[in-house]
Amino acid sequence: MQAEDILTAALTIMVVVLTAALVPLAVQLRRTLMRAEKLIEKLEKELPEAVGKLGESSAELGRLAAKLGSRVDDLGQTAASVRDAGRHLADTGELIKRAIAPWAVQAAGVGAGVRAFVDFLGRSCSRRKKEEEQ
Q1: Quick one: three-class SS letters along 55-119?
Q2: Residue 81: its pLDDT value, please?
Q3: How far is CA 20 from CA 14, 31, 57, 105, 110, in A?
Q4: How far apart are alpha carbons 47 and 69 in whole angstroms?
Q5: Cα distances (Å, whole numbers) of residue 124 to 82, 120, 133, 134
Q6: Number of neighbouring beta carbons within 10 Å of residue 89
Q7: How far is 64 from 70, CA to CA, in rounded Å?
């Protein structure tokens, strides 16, 4: 019976060692499961609110994107209007230049002629005065 006693003692020691190894593992597993359960409970409470806020944020982003799109369209129309106004101003400037430039040249020519005539008269008068004084 000695073989049975040795075998029984060996089995007893193995069960004690196995139990000693499994107890801390079971305790840690229990702690982990408790934390996981608390996390799941917290997620169950907070997740619907977070999903709702995410939906609201998504809707707000959609509205902002639509506004931005319309503003970009408005900006395109404004740019086209400014471009057209610039063309009209350039055309008006060219028209004024063509219409007024010949008159300005003529007026300058007439002004130069009048000035030359006045200078001529002024010289003639001053010569006559000098001749009379002598």
Answers
A1: HHHHHHHHHHHHHHHHHHHHHHHHHHHHHHHHHHHHHHHHHHHHHHHHHHHHHHHHHHHHHHHHH
A2: 86
A3: 10, 18, 53, 116, 123
A4: 32
A5: 60, 6, 14, 16
A6: 10
A7: 10
pLDDT in tens, 13-36: 999 998 888 888 889 999 999 999
Helix (H, G, I), strand (E, B) or coil at 53: helix
Whose tokens are 């840690």? That residue is 28
Task: Give residue 128's pLDDT.
Answer: 66
Q: In the 8-state DSSP scheme, what is residue 5?
A: H
| Sign of the alpha-carbon dihedral angle for 30, 31, 34, 35 | negative
Give the residue-averaged pLDDT of 77-89: 86
Cα gap 26→31, rounded to integer Å: 9
The gap from C-alpha 46 to its chain's centroid, in whole angstroms, comes to: 33
pLDDT at 116 > cutoff 80: no
